[in-house]
From TrEMBL, chain B:
Location relative to the cell: Golgi apparatus membrane
GO BP terms: Golgi to plasma membrane protein transport; protein targeting to membrane
Pfam families to which the protein is assigned, alphabetical: Erf4
Protein name: Golgin subfamily A member 7
Membrane topology label: Lipid-anchor
GO CC terms, sorted: Golgi membrane; Golgi stack; palmitoyltransferase complex
Function field: May be involved in protein transport from Golgi to cell surface. The ZDHHC9-GOLGA7 complex is a palmitoyltransferase specific for HRAS and NRAS.
Alphabetized UniProt keyword annotations: Golgi apparatus, Lipoprotein, Membrane, Palmitate
Family per record: Belongs to the ERF4 family.
The keyword Membrane belongs to this UniProt entry's keyword annotation: yes
Organism: Eleginops maclovinus
Primary location recorded for the protein, binned into one broad class: Golgi
Length: 471, 143
């Protein structure tokens, strides 16, 4: 992989040390900052350097490209809507009234977990401060001269008797923790990076993996349930020699549902099976695809994070403690940074405010970790999002850009260079999806017993290539 | 004179001489632990034992936050059954421990580090990547 251009930090350009404001605890109330900033106090999400969008004054975040999230939502809503309209009345009359109850429960579960997956911070690591970054560079030189050199690309640590290489991230200016990967679509390092899922329009990482897993499992139940109900419905209608065509004519919605469910149930079930395997072995999709722990190189490598017990692995991945969001999007910027960024705001384009009112009424995890007290909740979205407000993915304050700017520029161009390929890969796959509604980011490693091994292996090649961009 | 510095005074008046960063220790995996190696820059400012005691306490607190025990499992299962909406109403165990960490650091700063012209920054403000120790200029030398 070619070297990215490294912007070395000149210690003379480090910001002159200002007395740090009282460090508020992570969940301190927002209102009692000692200093009054000139102008409107700005929150940290305004200057967030990654490619994310924020709504409801930082409570909700999504990736910049929403991917096909509207399509996912649309398909779920349409299929479920048709189910309740066309199939439920008939089945309630002829079978049992439990059917809409179960269907309703599954539907609500699916939509809630989908929205949580999409709107939750996946485990983004905030970029290193200029002081930290220069400290990393300084440490490397041991001859007694304090010079600043680009750090080596990798650093090795031993975790549970396995040698693990930690890579240096040029964008975030830090050595990535184990299992962390930099997503070029979102331009963030994400902890325990699994994959970037266009269907949910967000990365799947440490903090939202359990939501994602619950989403796909409940979606497979929902799809299978609807498929079963529709089949039963049509079978009952076609009884008495009336024939399938007659049944379909009587209930056209069922035909649509049948098609959608038939094509999606296999891929979603396959995906659930694959992720169940990953959960049981405490692997991420990223590691599985790269073959990090499969011993392909011939050495005796095992997964150092696995607890060697399926039950314990499942519990630790799905039921472990919920880590907090590290990016503190709703915290206020210190006064001097607010003033500096105000100038940078002026040229930023107006961004379309994307039905945030609807979005804000959804309860999400983001609400809790941003120290929202009830009074703050009531001052919700419209106040927080005047039209000229940036969503924090353009130039951060100048002092951040002195250290990150150069590297960021090159990464932007790399990101852009890689994005077309990503979107090409994805558009190819979404064409396939139109035919068979597979999950494009991973119709690959569907479970080993998947019948379509052929396309999987070519898709695997694709995914291997696209992952090389994820550093 | 140095001993009576209050935290606020120091921050507003003193100049930062240097910053020391204590990196994460990954030998036990991805759990949050910090390296306990005593940095040489602090040798003249604070006793090694005192500093290591602070670090040990912090590491214990983070280990408690990430512990896989019955409490976290119950919390996790309950959350799963309610489609994780319970996270909106309830403070998670991790967050409770983070509050304890913040309080502990504040207390340590007030009692031990500020009088010595040092300041510990809560790691959560640095994304749990580092513990930043700010060394302020020793004003007793300049007087």
């Amino acid at each position: 992989m070619k070297n990215c251009e490294y912007q070395q930090i000149d210690p003379r350009t480090l910001p002159t040390p200002t007395p740090t404001p009282t460090p508020t605890p992570h969940h301190g109330p927002d209102g009692d900052r000692p200093e009054e900033p000139r102008g409107r106090p700005r929150r940290k999400w305004h200057v967030f350097p990654g490619k994310n969008r924020f709504y409801c004054d930082g409570r909700i975040m999504v990736a910049r490209q929403s991917g096909v999230l509207p399509l996912t939502l649309g398909l779920i809503l349409v299929t479920s809507g048709l189910f309740f309209i066309f199939d439920c009345p008939f089945l309630v009359k002829h079978l049992t009234s439990c059917i809409p109850v179960i269907g309703g429960f599954l539907f609500v579960f699916v939509v809630i977990t989908l929205l949580q997956t999409s709107f939750t911070d996946p485990g983004i690591l905030p970029r290193a401060t200029p002081d930290e970054a220069s400290d990393i560079e300084k440490q490397i030189d041991n001859t007694g001269n304090t010079s600043y050199r680009p750090p080596p690309r990798t650093k090795e640590v031993v975790i549970n008797q396995q040698v693990v290489k930690l890579k240096y991230c040029f964008t975030c200016k830090m050595f990535r923790p184990p299992r962390t990967s930099h997503c070029s679509l979102c331009d963030n390092c994400v902890e325990r990076f699994d994959h970037h899922c266009p269907w949910v329009g967000n990365c799947v990482g440490k903090r939202n993996y359990r939501f994602f897993y619950t989403f796909i499992v409940s979606l497979s139940f929902l799809t299978a349930f609807i498929f079963g109900c529709v089949t039963t419905h049509l079978a009952l209608r076609a009884q008495g020699g009336k024939g399938l065509v007659f049944a379909l004519q009587e209930s056209p919605g069922s035909a649509v549902e049948l098609v959608i469910c038939f094509f999606s149930v296999w891929s979603i079930l396959g995906l659930s099976g694959f992720h169940t395997y990953l959960v049981a072995s405490n692997l991420t999709t990223n590691e599985d695809i790269k073959g990090s722990w499969s011993g392909k190189s011939g050495e005796d490598v095992t997964n150092p994070y696995s607890q060697r017990n399926i039950f314990v692995n499942c519990c630790s991945v799905l039921c472990g403690p919920m880590p907090p969001s590290l990016i503190d999007r709703r915290g206020f910027l210190p006064a001097d940074e607010s003033v500096q960024t105000a100038a940078a705001d002026i040229e930023l384009p107006t961004l379309a405010t994307k039905s945030e009112i609807n979005v804000c009424t959804q309860g999400t995890k983001g609400l809790l970790e941003s120290a929202t007290l009830p009074p703050l909740l009531s001052t919700s979205c419209p106040q927080g999002k005047p039209p000229t407000d940036p969503t924090g993915n353009f130039d951060p304050s100048p002092e951040i850009s002195t250290s990150c700017g150069g590297a960021r520029h090159t990464h932007h161009s790399r990101g852009r260079a890689s994005t077309p390929r990503h979107s090409k890969t994805r558009s190819k796959k979404s064409k396939r999806a139109a035919l068979q509604i597979a999950n494009p980011s991973f119709d690959v490693p569907v479970s080993p017993t998947s019948p379509d091994a052929g396309p999987s292996s070519t898709a695997r090649g694709h995914e291997g290539a696209s992952f090389s961009h994820l550093h | 004179m140095a001993e009576t510095h209050s935290l606020q005074d120091m921050r507003q008046q003193a100049a930062v001489a240097a910053k020391v960063f204590l990196q994460r220790d990954y030998t036990n995996g991805t759990v949050c632990q910090f390296q306990t190696k005593f940095p040489s820059e602090l040798e003249t400012r604070i006793e090694k034992q005192q500093f290591e005691e602070t670090l040990r306490m912090l590491n214990n607190l983070y280990a408690e936050a990430e512990k896989l025990g019955s409490q976290s499992y119950i919390e996790g299962c309950l959350a799963c059954l309610t489609a994780y909406t319970v996270f909106l109403c309830m403070e998670t165990h991790y967050e409770k421990v983070l509050k304890k960490v913040a309080k502990y650091i504040q207390e340590q700063n007030d009692k031990i580090y500020a009088p010595r012209g040092l300041l510990l920054t809560d790691p959560i403000e640095r994304g749990l990547r580092v513990i930043e120790v700010t060394i302020f200029e020793d004003r007793s030398l300049t007087r």
